[in-house]
Write a structure and sequence with these properties.
Blueprint (H helix, E strand, L loop, with lengths): L1 H15 L1 H24 L3 H30 L15
Helix pairs in contact: 1-2, 1-3, 2-3
Length: about 90
């Protein structure tokens, strides 16, 4: 179920602008990490929880965007060897 949720969350960003969205999700993850540390440092559990939730969602979206961008760049399949069985054409 988590994988499907992750795919659905990333779908909108994959359609819009996958490369830009990958960088943006990385930035949102960093900001969520700062919010988490701030919440833990000053003892605000709501702020820390918000950092965890937003950071987790951003990381899930970023992961799918990274996979998609890599597949577009490198290709999904690679041909290692081609066999010929004597059939012409």
């Amino acid at each position: 179920m988590l994988v499907v949720l992750r795919d659905l969350l990333a779908l909108r960003f994959i359609i819009a602008a996958p490369r830009v969205s990958e960088v943006a999700c990385g930035a949102v993850t960093a900001v969520a990490g700062v919010v988490l540390v701030y919440g833990l440092w000053y003892g605000d559990p709501r702020l820390a929880l918000a950092g965890v939730v937003i950071g987790s969602l951003a990381v899930m979206i970023w992961w799918n965007l990274r996979r998609f961008n890599r597949a577009q760049r490198d290709g999904v399949f690679r041909i290692r060897r081609e066999y010929s069985f004597g059939v012409d054409g």
